[in-house]
Amino acid sequence: MITFPMNKENKIKEWNTICRIAHNNNFSTNIIKELKNRIEQNKTHQKPKDNKEWVTFMYYTPQIRKITNIFKHTGIRIAFRSNNNIQRIIRHKENIRTEQYNRSGI
């Protein structure tokens, strides 16, 4: 209810539904109110998102790491990737099949 974009009227209806369900299951409404308050407080105290951009470099040699250290104090984050990955190693090679009657032999 807190995190979904709803208008005030729908939030009130949802809150009443939650309270009714809690009451029907023998939960104290105080516990539900405390949980709601904690969730709302956590939502307001969240850290702002980091607006740094990510850039990937192919990791060939240790010199690449030295070059990327230049970018440490900028708004760019560095990620390394390798050219040697599982997809490349296990790549399915195409079987070139010829038509049944175009094969040589008997």
Mean pLDDT: 77
SS-based class: alpha+beta
Radius of gyration: 30 Å
The tally of strands reads 2
Helix content: 40-55%
**Beta-strand fraction estimate:** 5-15%
Low-confidence stretches: none
Biggest sheet, in brief?
2 strands, parallel
Q: How far is the first residue's CA from the last residue's CA? A: 74 Å
Tell the overall outline: flat
Q: Could you give the order of the helices and strands? A: HHEHEH
Count of helix runs = 4
Strand arrangement, largest sheet? 1-2
Task: Tell me what you see in this structure.
Among the domains are: 8-44, no CATH class; 53-89, no CATH class. It is α+β, with helices and mostly antiparallel strands and 106 residues long. Strand 1 (53-58), helix 3 (62-68) and strand 2 (76-81) form a beta-alpha-beta unit. It has helices at 8-24, 29-44, 62-68, 86-89; strands at 53-58, 76-81. The model has no long low-confidence stretch (mean pLDDT 77).
Brief descriptors of the model:
106 residues, alpha+beta, two-stranded parallel sheet, 4 helices
Topology:
Layout: H1 8-24, H2 29-44, E1 53-58, H3 62-68, E2 76-81, H4 86-89
Parallel strand pairs: 1-2
Short description:
42% of the residues lie in helices and 11% in strands. The chain has 106 residues and is α+β, with helices and mostly antiparallel strands. The protein is flat and about 80 Å long.
